[in-house]
Design brief:
The protein has 157 residues and is of the alpha+beta class. 34% of the residues lie in helices and 30% in strands. It has one domain: ph1033 like fold. It has a 6-stranded mixed beta sheet. Strand 4 and strand 5 form a beta hairpin. The radius of gyration is 16 Å and the shape is globular. The termini are far apart. 30% of the residues are buried.
């Protein structure tokens, strides 16, 4: 009986962070939908479409790195341009995740399609689906888990 209790605590510790206010971030990191931010002048969605495949790296924020590392193969991704543009512009999918170096995971993406109706940051902030999202609450987070409802709204035509 004691072993079951220990196992339950170990399992709970895996999914529940030490800081309760980060609970929703930990649960969302198990998502199949993500938003990746990039500076259009550095590597734009058009660059991804031209290249067809790329390795997403260079992320340094610990929460964003964890989100990258935990992305399941086949996850759906929205590409978001930061800077002057501030809008979701296209889609991609996760081909593979190499988390051998836990501090610098390499995520291979395949380009998807440009969004017919790109969503601006102001549109996103105005939508109640995003009121608890790290996308609007932690503005500098470059790898953001999304719910299925958020994904569907962002890619809706």
């Amino acid at each position: 009986m004691m072993a079951i209790g220990c196992a339950s605590r170990k399992l709970a510790a895996k999914f529940i962070p030490a800081k309760p206010r980060l609970w929703h971030l930990r649960l969302q990191s198990l998502a199949m939908y993500y938003l990746l931010k990039t500076e259009a002048g550095t590597y734009s969605f058009a660059d991804l479409q031209r290249d067809k495949t790329t390795v997403w790296d260079g992320v340094t924020n610990p929460v964003a790195v964890r989100n990258l590392r935990e992305m399941p193969k086949g996850s759906n991704v929205v590409i978001y341009h930061t800077g002057d543009e501030k809008r979701a512009v296209g889609t991609a999918s996760v081909v593979s995740v190499d988390a051998t170096d836990t501090k610098k995971p390499l995520v291979t993406l395949n380009a998807g399609k440009a969004l017919k109706s790109p969503k601006s940051l102001s549109d996103i902030k105005a939508n109640k689906l995003f009121q608890d999202s790290p996308l609007v609450n932690i503005g500098r987070l470059s790898v953001v888990p999304l719910t299925e409802a958020q994904w569907k709204w962002l890619v809706a035509e």
